[in-house]
Specification:
The protein has one domain: Four Helix Bundle (Hemerythrin (Met), subunit A) (Up-down Bundle), CATH 1.20.120. Helix content is about 75%, strand content about 0%. It contains 12 helices and 2 strands; from the N terminus they run ααααααββαααααα. The chain has a two-stranded antiparallel sheet with strand order 1-2. A hairpin with a 2-residue loop joins β1 and β2. α1 crosses α3, α2 runs antiparallel to α3 and α10 runs parallel beside α12. It catalyses: 1-O-alkyl-2-acyl-sn-glycerol + CDP-ethanolamine = a 1-O-alkyl-2-acyl-sn-glycero-3-phosphoethanolamine + CMP + H(+); CDP-ethanolamine + a 1,2-diacyl-sn-glycerol = a 1,2-diacyl-sn-glycero-3-phosphoethanolamine + CMP + H(+). It is a multi-pass membrane protein.
């Protein structure tokens, strides 16, 4: 896609800030997520006998997704073109990318939905974690090797997603009910592609790149403990969120899947952004993100049954806290970086 992006960036005015391009692309994803939240909040709209999402929404989703993907590809080129590349731009770009994971997954989920012809909400929860783990692997590589190897499958997946949205608008969600080959349905293909990409491509390549750095004596962290530090907080987040859905008194994942996914994806992004800051500043990654301390208390309160009748309210409040905390963290980092650059 680089030839296409090279052509697009030439159209952009030189006064257009790269970070504004990054933010605009991200907001297209948020807008798509919001549209689908309105028309398919509980992921039932694509089921048989349900009121489906209007075709124009899928067309908008396809266009918005492609625009977001394109802007994500040209922001760095615009920075180099205008000699405005900064560490802040890198953090802003990859930080929003980490948050975008949950919007991608939740929006694609609406194509198949839940029910007999769709994917279960618990299955989608684990698929979300596959995507999140795939994302953090690349940044774990950079933390240990100093080089960011972006997964090549990203370009293919984004173009495919955009095309799927447009196809859905033209032929309707009913087209995805039919099997691809034999008894294999599109939902199965969707699941296999996500899981396969992790275990066949992303994970082996990450391990190989880290091993190559070790063999060449260029590994930045010599001990296994230090090398694995970036995984501590994500693993704890996974354990806490999985405990919540597994022991939920009200089966929260069935009642509020969209909000639960949003909470998990935002908390993950917060953890990942701190790892990215450590990469940029060549500092040691902290083993525990402070955000997970109150989350531990929330999960314990929920699974103990103390707030059984108010679990949904607790989820909404905690999700709002996580989002506001994440935004506050981002603003704080940007402010500190801006003040530092001004001082120099």
């Amino acid at each position: 896609m680089h030839p296409f992006w090279n052509s697009v960036v030439k159209i952009l005015p030189t006064w257009l800030a790269p970070n504004l391009i990054t933010l605009t692309g991200f907001m297209f994803l948020v807008l798509t997520f919001s549209l689908l939240s309105f028309y398919d909040f509980d992921f039932y709209a694509s089921g048989e006998g349900r009121t489906h999402v209007p075709s124009w929404v899928w067309i908008a989703a396809g266009l918005f997704n492609f625009l977001a993907y394109t802007l994500d590809g040209v922001d760095g080129k615009q920075a180099r073109r205008t000699n405005s590349s900064t560490p802040l731009g890198e953090l802003f770009d990859h930080g929003l990318d980490s948050w975008a994971c949950v919007f991608f997954v939740a929006t694609v989920y609406s194509v198949f939905g839940r029910g007999e012809t769709g994917v279960g909400v618990v299955t989608l929860y684990y698929l979300l974690w596959v995507v999140l783990f795939s994302f953090i692997l690349s940044h774990w590589e950079k933390y240990n090797t100093g080089i960011l190897f972006l997964p090549w499958g990203y370009d293919i997946s984004q173009v495919t997603i955009s095309v799927v949205y447009i196809i859905t608008a033209v032929v309707g969600v009913e087209a995805w009910y039919k099997p691809v080959i034999g008894i294999v349905q599109y939902r199965d293909l969707f699941t296999v592609m996500i899981v396969g990409c992790l275990f066949v491509v992303t994970l082996p390549m990450s391990l190989y790149n880290v091993f190559k750095a070790y063999r060449n004596s260029t590994l930045k962290h010599s001990s296994v403990y230090e090398a694995l530090l970036p995984f501590f907080s994500p693993v704890l987040l996974f354990v806490l969120s999985t405990l919540w859905i597994s022991l939920s008194p009200t089966d929260i994942i069935e009642k509020q899947p969209r909000i639960f996914y949003l909470m998990v994806g935002t908390a993950f992004s917060n953890v990942t952004c701190k790892l990215i800051v450590c990469q940029m500043s060549n500092t040691r990654c902290k083993p525990l993100s402070l955000l997970l301390l109150p989350m531990t208390a929330v999960v314990l309160l929920v699974i103990s049954g103390v707030v059984q009748h108010g679990e949904i309210t607790v989820l909404y409040i905690w999700t709002a806290i996580v989002i506001l905390t994440h935004i506050h963290y981002g603003v704080s980092v940007v402010s500190k970086d801006t003040h530092t650059q001004t001082a120099y």
